[in-house]
Amino acid sequence: MDWPMSQRSQPADDELRRLAEPLLGRTAAYAFALLGNREDAEDAIQEALLKAYRGLARHDRSQGFKAWWFAIVRNCCRDLHRSRSRRAPTVAVDAADSPAGNQSAWEEAERRDILRSSIAQLSPAHREIIQLRYFGDCSYQEIATVLGIPNGTVMSRLHAARRALAAICEREPR
Amino acid sequence: MKRVDPCELSALLDGELTLERAAEVRQAIADDPALRLEYEELTRLDDELQAHAREAVFQPRVEIPQRLRGPGPHVGWFVAPLIIMGLALRLLPLPIETGVEVAVVVGLVPYVLRRLLLASEQERRALANETAASPR
């Protein structure tokens, strides 16, 4: 997402609302994927909003808002994860985890569980790039900015992550 | 045509290749069964991941921080004492330079005081706002 020149003089909260609000759904999915807990994901996003609000004026806008925003969210998730690392892990349960009876819904849920546990088995670097690409819906350029790596590395790492994930899914018992 | 790097299959899937290169890679996929098989596997995995990620999207219960828009010190806080002093000085036998200096100082004092009071009030409210919005 770009920062139009005409919007640069907007008050920080208006500008933050305009830029961050459309990304909140994907941000939540990304934070949830990192933290595995909805409440923690919301806490991390709230903290990220405060940091973004404070830093908006100083930010180099040539980078694009989305990459900057996801970098903040990633840091907040890391901080929160570190601060709560001693807490017992909570298992995320949502309605979709308990399909109501029919065979295809069960198969779908089973497949989703395999995918979820396969992602968890990836190396941190591979897991991170999959989370940014799919849950954050980030482009290669945005991933490159968030992770501080070249575009070409994003391409090769993402491909390697997909290959690794396919191999793990294959091995997972059904 | 340049040889197709397997990584480019991923890039094609993600729409990250130039139009020209995407056409070349598509052609290579059509010509090479091994590449086609790999591309199909990647596409299947990509579809599953996309669906999984879409299901994970939710609207978080968060608040976007609000800027505190307190009234700034009105220009009247500066101008009014200036005018009053200006009028008063006309009645006193002071040289004009001294009169202007006195008027500016006397005009600035209430303005600065008012500014400081507003700043501390805004800081206090910002702190309260931040505390209310901070993670549970």
Question: Number of helical runs of chain A?
Answer: 8
Could you name the CATH topology of the largest domain in chain A?
Rna Polymerase Sigma Factor, Chain: A
What would CATH call the class of the largest domain in chain A?
Answer: Mainly Alpha
For the largest interface, the chains and their residue counts are:
A-B, 50 and 36 residues
Count structural domains of chain A.
2
Task: Please tell me how large the radius of gyration of chain A is.
Answer: 18 Å
Average predicted confidence as pLDDT of chain A: 83
Low-confidence runs of chain B: none
- Written as H for each helix and E for each strand, in order along the chain, the element string of chain A is HHHHHHHH
How much of the sequence lies in strands of chain B comes to under 5%
Strand content of chain A: under 5%
Would you kindly provide a written description of the structure presented here, covering whatever features stand out?
The complex is a heterodimer of chains A (174) and B (136). Chain A is built from eight helices and no strands. Chain A is mainly α. Chain A folds into two domains: 5-83, Orthogonal Bundle (Rna Polymerase Sigma Factor, Chain: A), CATH 1.10.1740; 105-171, Orthogonal Bundle (Arc Repressor Mutant, subunit A), CATH 1.10.10.10. Mean pLDDT of chain A is 83; it is low at 4-9 and 89-99. The model of chain B has no long low-confidence stretch (mean pLDDT 78). Helices cover 72% and strands 0% of the residues of chain B. Chain B folds into two domains: 7-56, no CATH class; 76-133. Chain B is rod-shaped, with a radius of gyration of 35 Å.
